[in-house]
Write a structure and sequence with these properties.
Length: 474
C-alpha cells in the first residue's frame, strides 16, 4: 500500500466509523450471531494476491461489524463500561500512524516522555501525592501480575537472584476476598504462589467489604505456622457489587508483616477524578501499588491501564534487563519502561490519554462521571419503589445490583435465581439492552452497570420498562 492509497482508504474508513457511531442506536446491543457464524462467513484459506481496501470495508460492514457486541451503545449495561471516547480513538490513530517502537528511551524518546507526562497529569487529577510514579500497562490483570511479582521478590529478599521461590523454603501467602476479580487469583498463581496459600478472607455480609478481623486472624495463623505474608490485594470497587475493602485498617494490619498491598481499582479508579467521591479510597496513599483502567469508565480506548507505584526502583530491580543490544548513551538518565513491566516492545499508548485529556478536558470527564453517579442513585430509587423488585447491594458508584422477586416465588431461592437469569437472558436476546447477570450468595441477580458515554436518563427509563416487560413475561 502506498502512502496515497493509505490516505484515501483511511478517509473512507473514518467516514464509515463515524457513520456507525452516529447510528449505533439503530442496531441491537448484542448481535444475533451464534458461535462460528463470523468465522464461517470468512474464507478459510489465506487471500491470494492483494485486495482493494474497498472490498475490506465491504466485508467489515457485511461480516465483521454485525458480529460485534455494541459496548458503546447507550443501552449497554453489562460488565463494566468499556468506553472509547472519540478523542481517545484519535490518539490511538495517532499512535498507530506514528508507528513508534517502545523498547527503550532511545527507540522513541517521545513515547517514554509523553507517558511520563500523562501519568503525572493523572496522578495530579486523581489527588495522589507526588510519592507515586505511574506507568501504562495493557490491562489491570497485567498490573496485578506485575504487583504480585514485585511482592514476591520483596517478601523473599529477591529470591529470583538466588535460589528462586522454591529455594526460599517458606510459604508465601496471598490475601484477598472472594469478591476480588478472577485476575487476582490468576496473577497470584502465575507469580508462583501456591493455590493453597491464597487466603480468601471473609467479607461483610451486606457490603461485601473485607473483614479486617478475619484478615488479622489469617495472617497471625500463617505467621505462627512459619509462613510469610507476601501479597494483599484490596478490591476498591469489586466487579460483582462494587465492594470497597477498608484500606486504612488493612494497611495497619499488614504493615508490621511487610506484605505488599495492591489496590485493584480497575473500574472504580475513574471516580478518583471526582473529588467528592475520593473518601471511598481513604488509605490509598499507604498502599504499595494501585491500578485502575482509564479504558473502563473514564473512556480511554483499550488498552490503557494505569499502574502507580510507591517504589519503582524495587520493581525495576525485579524486572530489569539490560542486554548489550539495548544499551544506549542515555544510560541511567532516562526512564526505561521495559523495566516497569513484562513486555519489551510497547505501543505509544500515552497518546490516547494525551488526546482525551486535552480535547475533552478533565472537568467535562468528571462531570460525565457525576451524571452516571446521579443516574445510578436515581435508578436504584426507582427499583426500590417498585413492588417485587429489590436493590440487593449498596450502590457505591455506578452499578446497581437488582433482583426481581415475584410474589408467587417468594421464599423459593432456587426458583427466584432461575427467574432472574431468565428475564436477563430474554432482554439480552432481544437486543434492546444488555445486562450481565452475576451470582451473589449462590443466587443469580442482574448487575445494571451504568456509565456508557452516551447513556442518558431516558435510556434508563427505557430499561426499567424493558425489565418490567421481560420479568413479567417469564
Ligand atoms: C475489579 C476488577 N479488577 C480487574 C479487572 C480486570 O481488568 P482488565 O480487563 O483490565 O484486566 C476487572 C475487569 O472488569 C475488574 O472489574
Amino acid at each position: 500500500m502506498t502512502p496515497e492509497e493509505f490516505r484515501a482508504a483511511a478517509h473512507e474508513l473514518v467516514d464509515w466509523l463515524v457513520d456507525r457511531r452516529i447510528s449505533i442506536e439503530e442496531r441491537p446491543v448484542r448481535p444475533p450471531v451464534d458461535p462460528g457464524d463470523v468465522k464461517h462467513a470468512l474464507p478459510s484459506t489465506p487471500p491470494v494476491g492483494g485486495d482493494d481496501p474497498a472490498a475490506l470495508l465491504a466485508d467489515l460492514e457485511a461480516v465483521v461489524a454485525p458480529g460485534i457486541t455494541e459496548v458503546q451503545h447507550p443501552m449497554h449495561f453489562g460488565w463494566f463500561p468499556s468506553n472509547a471516547t472519540l478523542s481517545s480513538i484519535l490518539g490511538d490513530f495517532a499512535s498507530s500512524g506514528l508507528a513508534s517502537l517502545g523498547i527503550s528511551w532511545e527507540s522513541s524518546p517521545s513515547l517514554t516522555e509523553v507517558e511520563e507526562v500523562v501519568t503525572e497529569w493523572l496522578r495530579q487529577l486523581t489527588g495522589l501525592s507526588d510519592r507515586w510514579s505511574g506507568v501504562i500497562q495493557d490491562t489491570a490483570s497485567t498490573s496485578c501480575l506485575v504487583a504480585a511479582l514485585a511482592a514476591r521478590e520483596r517478601a523473599t529478599d529477591h529470591a529470583q537472584a538466588a535460589d528462586g521461590v522454591l529455594g526460599f523454603g517458606k510459604r508465601l501467602h496471598v490475601y484477598t476476598t472472594a469478591e476480588a476479580h478472577s485476575s487476582v487469583r490468576k496473577a497470584a498463581l502465575l507469580a508462583g504462589y501456591a493455590a493453597d496459600d491464597i487466603r480468601s478472607i471473609e467479607v461483610d455480609p451486606v457490603s461485601r467489604d473485607m473483614n479486617v478481623d478475619a484478615l488479622r486472624t489469617a495472617i497471625e495463623a500463617d505467621v505462627a505456622a512459619g509462613g510469610v505474608p507476601a501479597f494483599v490485594v484490596a478490591s476498591l470497587g469489586s466487579t460483582g457489587v462494587t465492594a470497597f475493602d477498608p484500606l486504612p485498617a488493612i494497611v495497619e494490619t499488614v504493615r508490621p508483616h511487610g506484605a505488599w498491598v495492591h489496590a485493584d481499582a480497575a473500574m472504580a479508579g475513574s471516580a478518583l477524578l471526582v473529588p467528592e467521591y475520593r473518601h471511598l479510597f481513604d488509605g490509598i496513599e499507604d498502599c504499595d501499588s494501585i491500578s485502575w483502567n482509564p479504558h473502563k469508565w473514564m473512556g480511554t480506548i483499550l488498552d490503557t491501564s494505569l499502574l502507580y507505584l510507591r517504589d519503582p526502583e524495587h520493581l525495576i530491580r525485579v524486572m530489569s534487563t539490560n542486554p548489550s543490544y539495548l544499551q544506549s548513551t542515555a544510560g541511567g538518565e532516562a526512564t526505561q519502561y521495559r523495566d516497569w513491566g513484562i513486555p519489551l516492545g510497547r505501543r505509544f499508548r500515552a497518546l490516547k490519554l494525551w488526546y482525551q485529556l486535552r480535547i475533552d478536558g478533565p472537568d467535562a470527564i468528571a462531570d460525565r462521571l457525576r451524571r452516571d453517579l446521579d443516574n445510578a442513585q436515581w435508578f436504584a430509587a426507582q427499583i426500590e419503589a417498585k413492588p417485587e423488585w429489590e436493590v440487593i447491594a449498596p450502590v457505591r458508584l455506578q452499578t446497581v445490583c437488582v433482583r426481581h422477586v415475584p410474589a408467587a416465588l417468594a421464599g423459593d431461592t432456587e426458583a427466584i435465581s432461575a427467574h432472574n437469569l431468565e428475564w436477563v437472558r430474554r432482554i439480552n436476546v432481544s437486543g434492546s439492552a444488555f445486562l450481565s447477570p452475576s451470582q451473589l450468595d449462590d443466587g443469580w441477580m442482574a448487575r445494571v452497570s451504568i456509565g456508557v458515554e452516551s447513556t442518558e436518563r431516558h435510556h434508563l427509563e427505557r430499561l426499567l420498562d424493558l425489565m418490567d416487560e421481560h420479568a413479567g413475561a417469564v
